[in-house]
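Aminotransferase class I/II-fold pyridoxal phosphate-dependent enzyme, Phytohabitans maris. Tokens?
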Amino acid sequence: MNFADLAMPGLADPLTAMPDPAGATQVTALEDELATRFNVPHAVAVSSGTAALHLALKVLGIGPGDEVLVPALSVVMSVAPVVYLGARPIFVDCNPDGTDFDYHDLNAKITHAAKAVLPVHLWGRAGDLTRLCRWADEHHLDVVEDACQAQGTDIDAHPAGTRGAIGCFSMKDGKILWSGEGGYLLVHKEQHAAAARSFRSHGQPPPPTGYPPHVGHNYRLAEPLAAIARANLSRFDQLLGHRQDQARHLREHLTDTPGIAVPQPPTTLRWNGYSFLATVNLPAPRAFCEHLARLGVPNSVGTFRLQPADQRPEFAAYTPDPCPNAAAVIGRTLAVVLTDHDNEHRIAHYAQTIAREAHRWQP
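Tokens:
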């Protein structure tokens, strides 16, 4: 997709209107369109997915002394907002295949200080949200979904990010719905949406009744970025289908490759194909992923050095107990990073490289 294809008329209006310090025409329209597209009462546009998570936890009252249950199978951006608020992240392990929480670990780690659980739909996959929401209700916890990589994923016919109290999304480059940078919240309760809009802009307008005065943040989404997001949202189904086709083509090319196991998503999940996923059943799988990255196949482990969040040094103070399943899942997962620019030729090249190197691999 070329930037020129993004309808310069869609950018002309917000650019012509600048400078306009109070301008929010594109942002307001984007919020209305997001709420309609994902069938929720409210959407709140913000400057990043991390900002969305920060505001979601803040409007739910998370603060010092509170605990938030977070998956170890996640990225630093998912956990950082908990720390920003002075709360404590409690890392929970995943099940052996990495598709959901390990509920034995979840139950073992909940305390009276827990106020929320934050599932992270890494690589666009999501676990059993019906089960998680029922469990959270039983323990009087809010569910905040980190759906930053899960735009277009459906779980039991519900869009990712719409089952919990608040769903959080990113529109950074590489996301299926992108604007260069940005994010948004999908919200069910009007007071939560109003509070998020207040806190994203230095407390203006003031938060609704029930919220004490707070120093807000500068988490506004710029008008030109909102215009780009609207242009992409208008063809979201096309962008989603393209990403799903890319992942399917890689799966078809690699299904019979020795040492590369391609799992099928469960029937309850309509996966968005955010990254092509395979299990590496070769010696030293992490080294193999790093080798592929050096050969031009971008992937989570080899390119971005993904490791379980509970093993990151910046969270060392919060990790008394390791989460072995998360480490094992990440250590053997090949998650190929896909973008709109990856045409069939490039996808075929990725597949050929992976298959060839799997046959040759000697760590």
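The first strand starts at residue 42 and ends at 46.
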